[in-house]
Amino acid sequence: MAHSYSAVAGVVFLVALLFAGSAVVNESRAQSGRIDVLDPHLLPLGDGKVSTKPMRGFVYSCRTQFRGGGAQHAGDWIHGSTWDATKKIWVQGNVEWPDSTLAIAMSNGERRIAGNGLPVNHTTGIFPVRPTDPAYQIDRNPNRIEAQQIAFSLPLMPALAATPGCVPMGMIGVALNGVAIYNALDDGGRDAVAHEVQDRCSGHPQMTGEYHYHGPSPCIPGAAANNRLIGYALDGFGIYSMYDEQGKELTNADLDECHGRVSQILWDGKQMSMYHYVLTSEYPYTVGCFRGTPRRVQERVGGDSPPDKGQNRMRQPPAEAIAACAGLSSGSQCRFKSARGDAITGVCRSPAGELACVPERP
């Protein structure tokens, strides 16, 4: 069973999140019957909430020393221990990514995910940030968005680990629109969502060009829906939307030390009671620590800072070749179109530990 997604022109802006920054957003939510708990004008700032063990409301970080990067100046939306999401600016621009790809397939008890890391069906700001952009005065992100080669497999039915594990810098999950999800920290160990200036979709690139989110995005499909899957963490557990099944906004008070909970969810077409993480507008936003055992990700990695130990770069087949074998078994015939537009036929093999379409030799 496979699902493939390819970007088309235009932007898909679904239900706006708190970060959209307008009073109209709150009014529409009230009219929809949802119950908002957090005040977007007074969101708790996550600075200093980095731990060396699992703690509710903290990031249990594998990294304990930070380089001090990130935004160069504090925005005027930050006030002491709180920040105002409705006042935060964003990086200007409206760049389309028609070549974005994402393939998700289930086979032999595994969920195989392959893509090129570009956002499916949404635009981005212009990066590097231009000197004429007001964001440049706060966060002079010099990085350019570039396609990545991402491929990994997750367990269809993940199990809780004996003890929670720390989260690295770099990818900790992926949204259903193909965008990488990072933890809540910037390169200086601060609250990245509050301090860094992202684009209208709350994303930006790091040093190797990987576009990513640190928290909620109005461009993640279903992010403001009730109890809906919006992505997967690298331990295989799902990441679900900001509201529960009754339409109540979830906060740290509702979640455990890893920013998750056990409740009834729709998982691969079946209703079941299962552990899952929750996207929130409150730090640490997505995954505070891993409740399961994370899988190694094959990608061009960097994080907002250099990769943590164990996240070394790995050579692998192109994302298009990996996607071509999604849902197929080793030895199956396959075909794909290369980045240059060449039509290639081959056989599904595992040249780098990941099933991919290997071109037939003449």
Please provide a written account of the structure:
A hairpin with a 2-residue loop joins β7 and β8 (110-115). By secondary structure, the chain is mostly beta strands. The two termini are 31 Å apart. Helix content is 5%, strand content 25%. It contains 3 helices and 20 strands. The longest helix is centred in the N-terminal third of the chain and has 9 residues, at 23-31. It is globular, with a radius of gyration of 20 Å. The strands form 5 sheets. Strands 12-13-11-10-14-15-17-16 form an 8-stranded mixed beta sheet, with no helix packed on it. The protein has a 4-stranded antiparallel beta sheet with strand order 1-7-8-9. The chain has one domain (1-314).
How many separate structural domains? Answer: 1
Beta fraction: 15-25%
> Helix segment count?
3
Radius of gyration: 20 Å
Helicity, as a percent range: under 10%
Give me the strand/helix succession: EHEEEEEEEEEEHEEEEEEHEEE
Give the CA-based shape: globular
